[in-house]
Task: structure prediction
Amino acid sequence: MSKYLTEQRYYTFVGVGVLAVLSLLAMFWSGWMVIPFVVFAFLTALGFKDINQNRHAILRNYPVLGHVRFLLEWIRPEMRQYFLESDSEEIPFSRDDRSLVYQRAKGDEDKRPFGTRERVYEAGYSWLTHSIVPTHFENTDFRVQIGGSACKKPYNASLYNISAMSFGSLSANAISALNQGAKMGGFAHDTGEGGISRYHREGGGDLIWEIGSGYFGCRTKDGQFNPDRFAEQAADDQIKMIEIKLSQGAKPGHGGVLPAAKITPEIAEARDIEMGKDCVSPASHPAFSDPMELVQFIGQLRELSGGKPIGFKLCIGHRREFMCIVKAMLETGIAPDFIVVDGTEGGTGAAPVEFSNHVGMPMVEGLTFVHNTLRGAGLRDEIKIGVAGKVTSAFDIARALGLGADWCNAARGYMFAIGCIQAQACHTNHCPVGVTTTDPERQKALHVETKSKRVARFHANTLEALGEMAGAAGLDDPRDFLPYHFMQRDGDSQMKEGSDSFPYLEEGFLLRDGDDNPEYRKRWKRANAHDFAPPE
Result:
């Protein structure tokens, strides 16, 4: 009971309860007080119902008061935008994006009247070209096999998986809901760099184990990579792939510190760190410092894992540095099984504003560069490419596949599926719906069984929509999308085909002499397999 008296989010609920009691007592002086008594008694009963239901996390955390939000949505959907949000750049997803996720996660009708809501006559509007003879898919469980020639245990991955979000950044209930949803839907859940928690393991869903510069779950006491600990963890059959995090789209080149005061026993268990000490994630990896050491580290992890797919994730910065890694692949014969391109538009719980807004390459440009560099080096068939960065709808997936991706990851889309309302309080530990908080009381509002079903439903409905888009284009498989399937308006009466903006460059062109594609050749010539530093 004390929590209802000490936490501000319950003040409205407690207040109407107190007013109900006072109104009841006042009825001894005036019979007219029956009216406020009935009103406040009803609101009190509503509050008790709110804290005991599982459907809406915001009502469990904000009994009575939370209904104001739903009232505004009921009056008119746009009211929520005007009253509870702003149109500033700090709101990273449009109302339509969130609404689409909510509808698909809940299994509601996602059809809308009155045509497009996009501004079709403005520059930047893009669309998919369709066929007069569309196709139809009975099975929309689209998959891609990840694993090159050196991989002994390739993984048959879904085309749409959960992107990296660490336990600690997300609550225990959020991790459980995501992982159980992945298990139901048969797709993968990236752990984020915060290690594999008990909530990842209890869910039983396929895991992509992300290893960052802190080597959480496979580290020595002083924060160095521990091969024995890695091999022990990687032997778990639940772990399907291992992903080395070089950089994150939202804050590339930026390390981090988790203060000792915020480290709970569960976080310490997942990260394999000590209580009472700050947890440091360096900006760069201690295990390697040049391109050759990086690819050798990939080879080491492949051997220690028993041949599971090994890859790395990065947001493209200096393009020459990525080419340095590709040259090291060619020189050593060691190539990753996959590369995940994270766009600068990717999200995070907390990042310096300058990093979020102005550091790193957007996903589309990064994907195009990585795809064409691998083609130019003759490695594209050996290495699969995943992408992340605001991939929420079937159109987003289709466009990424057309520009060269083999599969897509999403974070915020799946967060919306478990109830995120973009309150942007992730860093405060006061998430109103229990998604990004370690507060045990707040996260109770996120009902795992209900939300995990929404995760699975969102995945299935999004892939079904992808199948409909591929069918409209007359394709036999969504992986057959190519740049020319997409058009973009450049201005009045002007449009550009995707093949003009993002062409596929010729296979092997970087390995032979020529003067074509000078921007790529200039950087390729300056790239050094043995050193990331620029040539003098």
Remarks:
- The chain has two domains: 2-84, 157-250+285-474+482-493+501-511.
- The CA atoms of residues 74 and 80 lie 9 Å apart.
- The longest strand covers residues 239-245.
